[in-house]
Each structure stands twice: as C-alpha cells, then as structure tokens.
Design a protein that fits this description.
The protein is α/β, with parallel strands linked by helices. The chain has one domain: Class I glutamine amidotransferase (GATase) domain (Rossmann fold). The chain is built from ten helices and twelve strands. The chain has helices spanning 10-17, 25-28, 47-58, 82-88, 92-95, 121-134, 143-153, 199-203, 242-252, 278-294; strands at 3-4, 22-23, 36-41, 65-71, 89-91, 100-105, 135-141, 158-172, 186-196, 208-214, 218-224, 229-232. α6 links the parallel β6 and β7 (135-141). α1 crosses α3. 43% of the residues are buried.
Length: 306
C-alpha cells in the first residue's frame, strides 16, 4: 500500500515522477483497511522540501499511511507561502483531540539558541507532552531529537567548536534492535548541526538505549526500550544535494563553512555529491513504521495511552 496524501500537495507529483506509489485521498477511501495515521510537525524553514524528503521514505512500505501536516501557531514560516500552509497544514489545536499511530518532529535551524529562547518552545513542549498519551511512537529528528531529549529527560545540548557537517560512518550498537534491523554493520548518514548531545548524558537515563553511534559524529540513534520515543541526531531524510545547497548558501553569505566531510567526490564542490545513505534511510524509516508503529499500535487508535 502507498502513502496517502492530497493530490494537490507538491510532494504528490514529485513522488509520482520518481515512480513511487502514492494514492490520493479519494482512492484511499474506497479501501477497507485502517491506514496508519502519521502526523508530521514540520519545523523546517523550507517546508515543501522537508515534506518531499520525509514523505519519500514514508512511501517505501506496504502499509497505507495517512499524513497530517502540522505547523506551529506561535511562529509562521517566512519561506513557505501562506497559500500552501493554509491549504495543507493544521495548527496543533485543530488536531489535539485526535490520536495518531506516529508523529515525526523535524529538525529546525534554531540549535544555537537556548531551548527556552525559541519562539515556539512553549507550544512544542505542549505538543511533546500531548504525544505521550496521544501518539504511539514519536520520531524526533536532529534539533527535534535534542529538544525531545531535553524536554523528556533533561539531557542538555552542547555547542560544537565547528559545525558537524558532512556524511559520517556509523556503527550499530544493538543489531537485534527493531529500528536497526537489516542495516549493515556500518553505514553512512548526513549531519548538519552546531550542537550535540553527549553519550555519557544519554547513558545516565535507564529508559534510553543508544542504538547507533559514530566515532566522528557521536550518538546517532537513541530509543526507549518500548520504541515509543525515537531520537535521530542526523538527517537520513536529506536529498543528495541538501548539504550542497547548505554549503553554497553559507558561502554566498560569506559565513565560515568547511566543505562537507565525505560528501563531494575528491572533496571537490564542483563534482556531483556521493549519496551513500539512501538505502539506510529507507531501512530505518520502514523499520520505524513497521516495528515501532504498525506491529504494536492498537488496532483501535482510541486505545493509545501512556
């Protein structure tokens, strides 16, 4: 079964052109099955780009997935048209009485600010608290992972001496974990961040397990023992050119930025980036949907609770 999204959403045409099976709402309504209800709290500035990236990997599954896009009310994106936001997005107070099998909280370019200084921090705290009883499994990405670890467990983030920027080699700590099932012993994943969380802080929390880490990039995948909360500190969802676009943007602004590590062929920005993480991204997102969500979420979605 495919992902189910409105046919007017830009991602619908993008994914169809990539020969990815997507289904519009009208056709989905004729099928007598219960789709997985997945909400995406999109905190990225370029929301359409983030939609395309995440929905691409949620489409790689035999399960039917129904998507609800959420934006914050306390901060309005300046990089996405109001028409798009009004047509495809919900505010939290419009969905807070609903339950979801899964929730994805994306990254956001606010990591160098203290959490409490972020405009929508109080709203995000409300959403993360709500997710404990209204969502079966929540996947937090990059800054979203740092925010979740801080809110739920008090784990702080630390400023890095230089931006952790590039594609880094990771290892699996627990090959029997459901989220890492099918991954190679070592695999690549992109990172783009100025802050980090420390392994020793995570290990102090008995409820958490470090599922994957990198000698260069630090802890990568963290999960609770029951898979109700997953934290990924990098960006497996990134496209081939996402790091290149960030590098070009910062260069044009005159910012100090290093060439992304292990990304361009021969470290030459004029050459095509080497995409080493696509297979691993498909596996991780499919594992989250299947093992962390579908295999364990109640058939009656109203039975979801803490």
């Amino acid at each position: 079964m495919p992902i189910t999204i409105p046919s007017e959403l830009p991602a619908y045409k993008v994914l169809r052109d990539e020969n990815i099976f997507v289904m519009n709402n009208e056709r989905a309504n004729t099928q007598d099955i219960r789709p997985l209800k997945i909400a995406v709290l999109n905190l990225m500035p370029k929301k359409i780009q983030a939609e395309n990236q995440i929905l691409r990997y949620l489409s790689n599954t035999p399960l039917q997935v129904e998507i609800t896009l959420i934006q914050t009310k306390s901060y309005t994106s300046q990089n996405t048209s109001a028409e798009h936001l009004n047509k495809f997005y919900n505010y939290f107070d419009e969905v807070c009485n609903k339950k979801f099998d899964g929730l994805i909280i994306t990254g956001a370019p606010v990591e160098q600010m203290e959490f409490e200084e972020v405009t929508y921090w109080n709203e995000l705290k409300e959403i993360m608290e709500w997710s404990r009883s209204n969502v079966f499994s929540t996947l937090h990405i990059c800054w979203g992972a740092q925010a979740g670890l801080y809110y739920h467990y008090g784990i702080p983030k630390y400023q890095l001496e230089e931006k952790r920027f590039g594609v880094f080699l990771h290892k699996i700590n627990n090959e029997r974990a459901e989220l890492t099932r099918g991954l190679s012993d070592s695999f690549y994943a992109p990172h783009s961040r100025h802050t980090t969380v420390l392994k020793e802080d995570v290990m102090k929390v008995k409820e958490l397990e470090i599922l994957s880490e990198s000698d260069e990039a630090g802890v990568f995948m963290i999960g609770t023992k029951d898979n109700r909360k997953i934290f990924i500190t990098g960006h497996l969802e990134y496209d081939r050119d996402t790091l290149k676009d960030e590098y070009d943007r910062d260069k044009e602004k005159g910012l100090a930025i290093n060439i992304p590590r292990n990304y361009f062929t021969d470290d030459n920005p004029e050459l095509k980036p080497d995409m080493r993480w696509r297979g691993s991204a498909h596996i991780v997102f499919a594992n989250w949907l299947n093992y962390c969500v579908y295999q364990n979420t109640p058939f009656n979605i109203e039975d979801i609770k803490k």
